Amino acid sequence: MIVGVLALQGAFIEHIEMLAHLGVPSRTVRKKRDLAGLDGLIIPGGESTVMAKLASSKHSGYLFDELRMLAQAGFPIYGTCAGMILLARDVLEGIEGQPHIGAMDIVVRRNAFGRALQSFVIDLSIPMLDVVSGATEQAPDFPAVFLRAPIIERVGQGVDIVATLDDSTIVAARQDHILASSFHPELTGDTRFHEYFLAMVAGRV
Fold first, then answer.
1. Least crowded by CB within 10 Å, which of 2, 10, 55, 151?
2. 40: β partners
């Protein structure tokens, strides 16, 4: 298994380090040709507008066009924070005309928690993670790191809600082979979210 990490901008190094910790080979993805031979892709947090501009350019080989086709064909993708914005079908308070992959039937609101000063960490109960914690073991709460994070306002048919805040705000979801979270698992020492995505890539969940 080889997992790619979109490395145009943002917190891609932390994802690579977490995959290495789990013993999984990874490859940085900056151009369309870098996708060849990959089994899945992580789109990190960062500036979604910058990523979108770079990934839609001739220099990248029109990377987003290829990702749209791969997503439609069942290619596993996990987007964190800005990655979730780029995967969403619709974005509220987004930049008009900004290209995105649009492969997940969710409506996302950008910067829903305000500026970086409003960033926070909260422990979330995520039953989905039980499958990577042991069959008889209930998963402990997950330390979710929110940095200028988006939220999911609405989900479409076929989208499973993975995690919510206490007020029912949706902060993680899965649709078939696509996973998205508002928060940054790569900024914690907890590998379970990445383990779950790897299980998706392997077809075990």
1. 2
2. 3
Q: Which residues 6+ apart lie within 8 Å of 54 measured at CB?
A: 8, 9, 60
**pTM score, two decimals?**
0.93
Q: Dihedral sign, CA of 13, 198, 80, 163? A: negative
- Residue 7 CA to residue 185 CA, distance in Å, equals 17
Query: What is the length of the chain?
Result: 205
Active-site residue among 14, 66, 186, 195? 186
Per-residue pLDDT tens digits for 51-74: 888 888 888 888 989 999 999 999
Q: Is 195 a catalytic residue?
A: no
CATH superfamily placement of domain 3-201: Class I glutamine amidotransferase (GATase) domain (3.40.50.880)
SS3 category, 12? helix
- Choose, from 81, 177, 194, 195, the residue flagged as catalytic: 81
Q: What are phi and psi of 187, to 5 degrees?
A: -95, 10
